[in-house]
Amino acid sequence: MPIYLLACMLARAWSDADATFLWVEIVAERRRDIAVRLERGELLPHGLVAAAAQQEITRDQLAKWYASARAWMRTTDDIKIRQRKQFLLIANNLSIPVNTKSQPYHSIIPAWVSALETMEKLIRGEPHVVRDGSVLLAISAWHIYPNMVVFSGQGCNKSVDMKDRLVNPGGTVSLGISDTGQRASRGIYWSLSLAHHKFYGRPIRKSSELNGDENRLSFAELQMAVMGGQMEDPHRGHR
C-alpha cells in the first residue's frame, strides 16, 4: 500500500512518460543501494536481497503498473470533487516546492516518507504546520483532506472545514500565503533532474506544478498552437 501511495503522488505531479522514467530511476537506485550495503557486510533481510536480485523490471511493466494507480486516482477525483476543488482554491495560490533536492531518488523518497508520517499524524488528530509541499501533494493524491488554517499575512486568516470523516478532530494543516510576486500562483511545484528521460546525453531538468486542470493550455501554448495552424503549407497554401 505505501508503494501504491507513492505511485499516486508521482501520478499527480508528473505526466505518464515522466513518471515512468522516474520509476525506472527509483528501481535502479534502490538496487544499487541494496548492493552497496550488502558488499559492506550489512545484514539485510533475505526477502529484500532476493527482490533486488530478481529478474529485471522492464519499463513497460512499470508503465502498466503505474497506469493502474493513475486510473484509481482519477476515479477518486470524481468522487471527492467538492473537497478537491476546495483544496485547489488554496493550493493554487501558494508557491511552495515539494523539496529542494534535484536528484530524483534523494528527492522522491524523503518526500514520500515525510508525507506518510505527516498524514498518519493528521489522521490521528495531530496538527501540522506546512514547511514544504510534500504533505500538500499527498493530500491531493490520496484524497484525505484535513481541515486547513490559512494565514495570509495581512490579518485575513481563514479556517477551512474540509469535513473529512477519516481525519480525527485536531488534525489541522496550517499554512501561509505570503508570496505576491510573479511566482505567487505557481502552486505546489517539483523540480527534478531526469537522467533516464533519454538514453544518451545529460540529464534533463524538468519541473511540474500541481494545478486544477493539467490538460488546459497556457496562453503561451495557445499562441504557439494558433501560429502553427497559420503557417504556410507549400502544397496547400495558407491554412
How would you portray this structure in words?
By secondary structure, the protein is an alpha/beta fold. Helix content is 49%, strand content 15%. A hairpin with a 3-residue loop joins β8 (232-233) and β9 (237-238). The longest helix is centred in the N-terminal third of the chain and has 24 residues, at 16-39.
What's the total helix number? Answer: 8
Largest pleated sheet: 4 strands, mixed
Q: Output the structural class.
A: alpha/beta
Q: How big is the Rg?
A: 21 Å
Helix content: 40-55%
The fraction of residues in strands falls at 15-25%
Question: Could you give the order of the helices and strands?
Answer: HHHHHEHEHEEEEEHEE
Distance between the termini: 52 Å
Question: What is the topology, as strand order, of the major beta sheet?
Answer: 2-5-3-4
Overview features:
9 strands; 8 helices; 3-stranded mixed β-sheet; alpha/beta; globular
What does the secondary structure layout of this molecule look like, with pairings?
Layout (H helix, E strand, L loop, with lengths): L1 H12 L2 H24 L6 H8 L5 H21 L1 H11 L3 E3 L6 H21 L3 E2 L4 H9 L4 E5 L6 E3 L11 E5 L10 E8 L9 E7 L8 H11 L2 E2 L3 E2 L1
Parallel strand pairs: 1-6, 2-5, 3-5
Antiparallel strand pairs: 3-4, 6-7, 8-9
Helix pairs in contact: 1-4, 1-7, 2-3, 2-4, 6-7
Question: Summary?
Answer:
The protein is α/β, with parallel strands linked by helices and 239 residues long. 49% of the residues lie in helices and 15% in strands. It has one domain (2-231).
